[in-house]
Structure formats: structure tokens, C-alpha cells
Amino acid sequence: MKKRNYKKTTDKIVTFIKETFKEKGFKKAVIGISGGVDSAVVASLLVKALGRENVMGYSLPCGKQKDIKDAVTVANSLGIIYETIDIEPVVNSFLNTLSYEEDKIDYIDNDIISEGNLKARVRMTMLYDMSACYNTLVVGTSNRTELELGYFTIHGDGACALEPIGHLYKTEVFELAKYLKIPEVIINKAPSAGLWDGQTDEGELGYTYKQIDEMLDTLNSNDGKVSAITNIYLNIFERIQRNEFKSELPKMIKE
Predict the structure, then answer these.
(1) How far apart are CA 65 and CA 189, in angstroms?
(2) What is the pLDDT of residues 111-161, one digit of tens each?
(3) By CB neighbour count within 10 A (0-12 exposed, 13-18 middle, 19+ buried), where does 248 fall?
(4) Helix 209-221 × helix 231-243 angle, to 10°
(5) What is the rounded distance in angstroms from the CA atom of residue 154 to the CA atom of residue 165?
(6) What residues contact 101, with CB distance under 8 A and at least 6 apart?
(7) Which residue in 4, 86, 77 sits closest to 39, CA to CA?
(8) DSSP 76-140
(9) pLDDT per position as a tens digit, 165-183
(10) What sign has the CA pseudo-torsion 69, 73, 76, 79?
(11) With contact defined as beta carbons under 8 Å apart, do 162 and 17 qualify?
(12) Helix/strand number for the chain, H first, E second
């Protein structure tokens, strides 16, 4: 993996944000602040590009979550407009409604994967509602590793107007965070989407981000070829193939 100059990387992303907002005719941004490194980095870059008064951050926990204090730390350190909204009542209402029909549909209301995806979609619904109310753009926080693996919820955290760090592997996001002087408590915590208690990205993926990024970089640098078929290669390749549909536009009949 090539070594990046993170000053140049920062300047390039800031320019990209400015140009995208100008092109689309918007001045303000809405972003979900999770307390994790990705949203902290993107929020910091938005402040550099748009000014702190034009960045609206929302923490959207489902009930009590330990990392809410980290989201507050990020917002306070950047001085952005910030609010916390508990989405638990909305999620529970949805699950309770579905439970009435669980004998008719293929859904189990205690399935943690389905419930996690629901939380991600409720969060994005909230962000888009705020976007409509305040005439802002919703800014995504996905990195290249997540996007290539399809490690996101379609119409959830995968929905946004732009992805400022979508070209950076997760390990590169950590390096950029250090350059941007993101609080160490954010950088040092285990990455997690916060979709269920005890969930961590690396625990769910089965490998560290360093291992995954090295494999992805090898695949991208060698037209998908590797010198040896290993378990990590097989698992990553299978995940990419399985989730490829998430990045495709809806199919239509062409005339």
C-alpha cells in the first residue's frame, strides 16, 4: 500500500467537498456522528471546507449506548451544531408492528442482523429529514474498505450525497485522523457500527482492518490476482461477490 501525504490528502478532500457543494447548490451539511473515527474525520474535513457553522451533527443512539460520550467529544472539539436523538422508540415501533405479521413474512424480530440494518435505515431517514428541513446535503462516512466489501446497509449508512473518504482504506482513515488531531479516545477505540451490544467491525468481519486492507490493496493492484489462495482471500472475495448488488443502480428495461 502506497504511503500517503496526509496534508495533500486533506487538501484534496476539502477541495472535493467545496466543489461538490457549490455544484449542487448547497452551503450546509448534515452528518451522523457515531463517536467513531470515520464520522469524526469526515466532520473535521467538513468544518475545514464549509466552516463549523455550516455543519450539523446528529448522534442517533438506540437507547443507552456507551459511545455517545465520544460523539459529544467529537462535536465539542469541532464546535459544530450538534443534537442527540434517541431512535429506540421508532425502532421498537417498527419491530412491534412487524411482530404482528411474523407468521406471514420471513422475518424474526430478534434477529440482530435485521434489527441492526433497521437501525441504520432509521438513522439515515432521520438525517434525510433534517436535510430537507434545513436545506442541507447528507454526507456519508463510509471508507473504501467498507464500500469494496459491501460492509454497509443499503439505503442505510450507504445512502448519502457524497463520500469524502470513500477512496481511503480504513487503515488510511486512522492515519488521516492522527494528522487531523482527532481525539485519541476516538482513534484508539475498537471500530464498531453500534448495531448491537458488543458488536465490533473486526469481530464481525473475522480479520483485522490491516489484514483486510492489505488483501484489498493486493487485489486492486494486480487485477484481482493473488499469489496464493488463502482463507482471507476466499472470505473477502466471497463477501465482495455477495454484496456487489449494493453498489449497483436499480435494473431497468432498456429501450
Answers:
(1) 14
(2) 677 888 899 999 999 999 999 999 999 999 999 999 999 999 999 999 999
(3) exposed
(4) 80
(5) 18
(6) none
(7) 77
(8) HHHT-EEEE---HHHHHHHHHHHHTTTTTSS--TT-HHHHHHHHHHHHHHHHHHHHHHHT-EEB-
(9) 999 999 999 999 999 999 9
(10) negative
(11) yes
(12) 11, 4
Grid coordinates representing 212 are 483486510
Phi/psi at 94 (nearest 5 deg)? -65, -45
User: Where in the chain are the domains?
Assistant: 6-202
CB atoms within 10 A of CB 96: 10
Q: Which CATH topology does 6-202 take?
A: Rossmann fold (3.40.50)
139-184-161 Cα angle (round to 5): 5
Q: Taking a C-beta distance cutoff of 8 angstroms, is the pair 11, 165 a contact?
A: no
The amino acid sitting at 170 is K
First-residue to last-residue Cα distance in the chain: 43
